[in-house]
Design brief:
By secondary structure, this protein is an alpha/beta fold. The longest helix has 14 residues. It folds into two domains: 86 residues, Rossmann fold (3-Layer(aba) Sandwich), CATH 3.40.50.20; 120 residues, 3 Solenoid (UDP N-Acetylglucosamine Acyltransferase, domain 1), CATH 2.160.10.10. It is built from three helices and 24 strands. Strands 6-9-12-15-18-21-23-24 form an eight-stranded mixed sheet, covered by helices on one side. A six-stranded parallel sheet has the order 7-10-13-16-19-22, with no helix packed on it.
Length: 209
């Protein structure tokens, strides 16, 4: 029997549940969530807290972390892999994925997303609804590509960065780690680590504090 454990029963967890159902093949799907133990979410039981992952491995062979926080999602994904959980990507059947693309463990690819030729997407990435990732891009672990964001060809996105809703990144751009790109921004220049950018064209927000 294939049994899936979803870590996180909030809004993102609900979406991941319905994606797994659309994929099919699971005999049981349950949640763990520190705040909702004993409750049901969309008819599926919350069977424990995050601290219970090791014990629950006796009943669940596969897991996916459905938490929006990039750093925490990546941290928990790595811990579950060390425990021995299988963490295949959850890919909605209405996503379009090139045969030559590589999708990492614990990553989710939502409906209407397009991932084109020779793309590499690492662990624990969220490729949200309607995202376009063009040829030869590399997206590192723990990134969130928000709904309808677009990456031109050969773009690089560093670990744990967040690309906001509807943002666009032109071809060959390099975006560092822990970067935040605001909703609707258009990135036409490389961005160093740890920077926040907004606007058209995207410009750095300077913290005056």
């Amino acid at each position: 029997m294939r049994r899936l454990l979803i870590v996180g029963a909030g809004g993102h967890g609900k979406v991941v549940l319905e994606m797994a159902q659309a994929m099919g093949g699971y005999d049981a799907i349950c949640f763990i969530d520190d705040q909702l133990v004993g409750e049901k979410v969309l008819g599926h039981q919350v069977v424990g807290k995050i601290a219970d992952c090791k014990e629950l491995q006796q009943s669940f062979q596969e897991a996916i972390v459905a938490i929006g926080d990039n750093a925490l999602r990546l941290e928990l994904t790595k811990k579950l892999l060390v425990m021995g959980y299988k963490m295949p990507p959850i890919i909605h059947p209405k996503a379009i994925i090139s045969r030559s693309a590589q999708i990492g463990e614990g990553t989710v690819v939502m409906p209407l997303a397009v991932v084109n030729a020779e793309v590499t997407i690492n662990q624990a990435v969220i490729v949200n609804t309607g995202v376009i990732v063009e040829h030869d891009c590399r997206v590192e672990a723990g990134v969130h590509l928000s709904p309808r964001s677009s990456l031109g060809g050969t773009v690089y996105i560093g670990e744990k960065s967040w690309i906001g809703m509807g943002a666009s990144v032109i071809h060959t751009i390099h975006i560092g780690s822990n970067v935040i790109v605001g909703a609707g921004a258009v990135v036409i220049r490389n961005i160093k680590d740890g920077v926040k950018v907004v606007g058209v064209p995207a410009k750095e927000i300077v913290d005056k504090g």
